[in-house]
Amino acid sequence: MKKIAVIGYGGQGAWHCGQILKSDVCTLAGTYDIREVRRAAAAANGIHVYGSNAELLADPQVDAVVIATPNDLHEALVISALEAGKHVICEKPVEMSVASVDRMVAACKKAGKLFTVHHNRRWDVDFMAMKQLAASGQIGKVLNLESRVHGSRGIPSDWRGEKEHGGGMILDWGIHLIDQILQIFKQKIVRLYCTCSHITNQEVDDGFKLELYFEDGASAHVELGTYNFLPLPRFYMQAEKGSALITDWKHKTHVAKLTCWVEKDVTPVQNAADITKTMAPRDHLTLDEYDLEIPQSDVHDFYRNFCLAMDGKAEQLVTHQEIRRVMSVVEACFESDAKKQTLEVNI
Amino acid sequence: MKKIAVIGYGGQGAWHCGQILKSDVCTLAGTYDIREVRRAAAAANGIHVYGSNAELLADPQVDAVVIATPNDLHEALVISALEAGKHVICEKPVEMSVASVDRMVAACKKAGKLFTVHHNRRWDVDFMAMKQLAASGQIGKVLNLESRVHGSRGIPSDWRGEKEHGGGMILDWGIHLIDQILQIFKQKIVRLYCTCSHITNQEVDDGFKLELYFEDGASAHVELGTYNFLPLPRFYMQAEKGSALITDWKHKTHVAKLTCWVEKDVTPVQNAADITKTMAPRDHLTLDEYDLEIPQSDVHDFYRNFCLAMDGKAEQLVTHQEIRRVMSVVEACFESDAKKQTLEVNI
Dihedral, CA atoms, B63, B65, B66, B70, nearest 10 degrees? Predict the structure, then answer.
């Protein structure tokens, strides 16, 4: 069993502590938080609380450290932990720039320890269903994939609303959604377009819409909203031989698979105030509709992989190349939004 | 009762003939179509068939002419009909350029007759519901409106697939959807971005996505797809005090109205592989959900208005300014798609 310590006992740090306490591959060494109230909360939960980050990093029993602080503190803490000879799991977003990622990766190589990012939403069952459907080829090549998460509570009123701490929704939920999309589309991004919303916060984005265009003509839409009192469907896929839809993350994937194109003349149908041939629905003779089972998911697989990787028995699941690619998209998002233009890229 | 003749007895011309035969304000003088098979079809339906367009336009009993031909023939026929002293209803799209619209409007002013475009989808009950909701102010100012129509039959295999005849979906369904949006957003468009799809046709667009940005910060998304085997919801509205959704044109509008923002701390909820405060759902204490009745609609109101306008007793519902504005957006759509960039506009 590997021993893991957690720096930061906020929402995400406490979540890690809870997961590690239940893990079959690692145990919790303890935690440290700069806020007294959070240290007291950890202690009340029976968790060992270090006297400082330095004391935590100096503990020879600690194999790996989870960094779960506000985003602007990640780089310094990741590099300190690597220099202290610890393997490092950093919460997302890893940082706010590609240059910062490059410095962390350089520190990682110098230290000869592992460094990864906790992209735990790769274990979201809705995303897994889309990834599995795309990989199966059952409705052919993916032409367009749309990923939306809609909430209605605005941006959280803590540091997530402040630019200097790396607030905003692109760096919060956005980084998950972008990472998910790039797990499905491995081909190069040649162009992107991003617009941010500022309905409840002028300093940072409280939502965004991102269009990604890939070298083979495929496209993806990534959208996050915090002022949506009704949600649009979570995932929508257009593929060469059908479409698929996930209404809500708890729901099954609904698939409509084209079985026969049929070029013969179509009977027009009434549609609101007019008739239409173009929008005439298909029937079961040319379209097969069915549901896919919800995939099995276990977030502990993240820790299992990382503990194996520490012993050189597996490649880490979230790679440096992937971490850098996601951050490159994030940087381009901010640039596209500021310029109000599409950007030609090679990501 | 005004006497109306219809040039073109294809799908839309036959539809007009059928409507005029049932009208309480006008009667059908007859039709002409350059194709013998369509003239025979009209005759078989008991409709008077003229020997030529010239004979139709020379009939002194005809008050107004409907032009329902392929799009590239509209300008010449509209101008001929105006010069023959007839009022003119042109099918959509009026033509393929703003310059063409300007020539038709000039001919109209010279002739002293009416000229309008048959934007009959202003009588679509789904659009009417959105327009009425926006005007009612019950969920405040509209921040963003998304209009989608998804079919799965590709582009029709007649002239609608050919560029020289004005084919493509922007000029077909698109012009309806753009006209509808501009009936709700009267403020200036300052920027737009459009991308066309070419899944089933390389010559013309078989679908498009258009983003419109207005001078007051509001935005609209207009989307038409012909390779969507499952549809996304027809309309989605985000407003200052709530959201609204129409799943399908036959369905009622579902409204979620914010009654109280509540800034106090939110309890995180499980969402797939992680917890989230941002996406925690609201309850009935801060959100009121209800359905709106489907509006009453009667497409005959188009003819009723036009017949009143012929006698100077009403303003024509579809104005020259509106016709020109829609065509200006269409021109900008093609330019944005060709440049793969957003366009700064003043429309």
Answer: 180
pLDDT band at A263 (very low <50, low <70, confident <90, very high): low
Q: Closest chain B residue to A271 measured between Cα atoms?
A: B249
* DSSP result, B227-271: S-SSPPPSEEEEETTEEEEESSTTSPEEEEEES----SPPPPEEE
CB interface of B with A, residues 238-277, below 8 Å:
238, 242-245, 249, 254, 256-258, 261, 263, 266, 268, 271-277
Question: Would you call A173 and B268 a contact, using CB atoms and an 8 Å cutoff?
Answer: no
How does residue A268 score in pLDDT terms, banded at 50, 70 and 90?
confident
Whether A123 contacts chain B with CB within 8 A: yes
Query: What pLDDT score was predicted for residue B263?
Result: 66
> Could you list the mean pLDDT of each consecutive 10-residue stretch along chain B, which spans 347 residues?
97 95 97 97 97 98 96 94 98 90 97 96 97 97 98 85 88 96 98 97 95 98 97 98 95 95 76 83 89 95 97 97 97 98 98
Q: How far is CA A172 from the centre of its chain?
A: 9
pTM: 0.95
Nearest to A125 among B156, B193, B272 (CB): B272
Interface test with B, best of A117, A133, A275, A278 (most B CBs within 10 A): A278
Optimal mutation site among A279, A287, A288, interface B, most CBs of chain B within 10 A: A279
**Residue A90 β-bridge partners:** A67, A117
Residues of B in contact with A124 (CB under 8 A): 272-274
- The DSSP secondary structure of B184-218, one letter per residue, reads H--SPEEEEEEEEE-SS-SSS-SEEEEEEEETTS-
**Dihedral over Cα of B225, B229, B231, B232: its sign:** negative
Higher-scoring residue by pLDDT: A95, B223 = B223
State how far residue A151 is from chain B, nearest Cα, in angstroms: 5
Inter-CA distances, B6 with A117, B57, B64, Å: 67, 10, 9
**What is the least distance, in Å, from the CA of B244 to any CA of chain A?**
7
Please state which of the ranges A149-163, A183-197, A287-301, B136-150 shows the lowest mean pLDDT.
Answer: A149-163
Q: B287 at the A interface (CB within 8 A)?
A: yes
Min distance A155 CA to chain B CA atoms (Å): 7
Residue with tokens 């609204």: B244
CB contact under 8 A, A272 and B193: no
Angle of CA points B153, B154, B156, to nearest 5°: 90
Taking CB atoms and an 8 Å limit, are B278 and A173 in contact across chains? Answer: yes
Identity of the residue in B125, B143, B233 whose CB atom sits nearest the CB atom of A199: B143
Side-chain half-sphere exposure of B55, counting CA atoms within 13 A: 11
**pLDDT (mean) for A151-178:** 89
Question: Token pair of B33, please?
Answer: 């179509």
**pLDDT for residue A156 is more than 80:** no
- The partner residue sitting opposite A124, judged by closest CB among B256, B273, B281, is B273
